[in-house]
Amino acid sequence: MAIIVSKELNEALKAYKGVLGQFLTTGSTRSYCSYVRAIEHEMCKSNPNFSILNDWILPQIGRTNVDTVYELLEAVLEEFDQSFFSVQKILNYKKSKCRSALASFTKFVLGQYKANLYVSLDLGNDHDNCRLVARNALFCTVAVAKDIKDGKLGARTNIKHSKGKGNDYYSWFCCGFRRKKTHETRGAVINIVAGNPDPQGIGFYILDDNTKANEAIKKAVIEGLPKWMKTRYNDFSDYMACHIWDGTCYDYRYHTSVFNLVLLPKSIGGLTDYCQAVKEMLQYESAMRFGVYPSGKNHTMSSKTKKIYDTLHNDWRQPEEHSKINNTVLTGI
Prior knowledge:
The protein folds into 2 domains: 7-114, no CATH class; 128-332, no CATH class. It is 44% helix and 10% strand. The chain contains 15 helices and 10 strands. The protein has helices at residues 7-16, 32-43, 52-61, 69-83, 95-113, 117-120, 126-136, 142-149, 156-162, 211-223, 227-232, 271-274, 276-290, 303-309, 319-322; strands at 22-25, 28-31, 89-90, 93-94, 175-177, 206-208, 239-243, 261-265, 292-293, 331-332. The strands form 5 sheets. The protein has a two-stranded antiparallel sheet. A hairpin with a 2-residue loop joins strand 3 (89-90) and strand 4. The termini are far apart.
């Protein structure tokens, strides 16, 4: 029988699953998620409204005078220890395994899923967050983006089916977004069906859980590196792909568009989801670099973010691309 848990926990586990690995048990491999679900299921027996996220983890974020994320983690594990003081097993799982899984999940939530507290606890203001992102953000180069648009670079199937015509959306793959194992498909333009040709005639839909988006921007960034760096730094395993405009990962046109993706170190990637100033800055910067932005979206910044942005011209990791913005003509596509 499936373990019934809160909707909030299931949503968080969708992002967490596969990030931190698995436990090896006798004769099988079990996901960390199974142990986390078991904890919440057991707690719900006495309190049907209990939620690991809402009752144990998220309240720690509001604490003040905290130096490190590990102090927040310690508070969550204290809750666990008090709740299961005399228990050796939770459902059929060892208590120690469940505690380790909860620790890993908590660090993920506090450090990535909820605004990267590893960083924001120490920084704590929009200027510092924006400067940190600018100093670490990796865009595809403008030259590589043009080659993708012209059909010279990208997934083999796209190049083959476009017959050299390229694609208007600078897409490495033709993808629609779907989280694995949910059978849920989404498309902002049309309903996406795997295997169907796309309207541009450049390929066939792939239902993706961000794996292809991650592959697309990493390959595009690598294409723009000097030859000696391509062999030495060829995987960017410590980086994560971030969509720049909200909601565009569900649109087949922009899911793997290189102007809609940026690479950031995993430790600060969550700032693109939870810091509005960082969002606005990246949207404006991308639009200025590539001259295009998604249809129906904008690239404007609030006056507060613009003041921050105007101080960062010497901080961008790719200043040679940044210097091209004065000659850019913007087009929503």
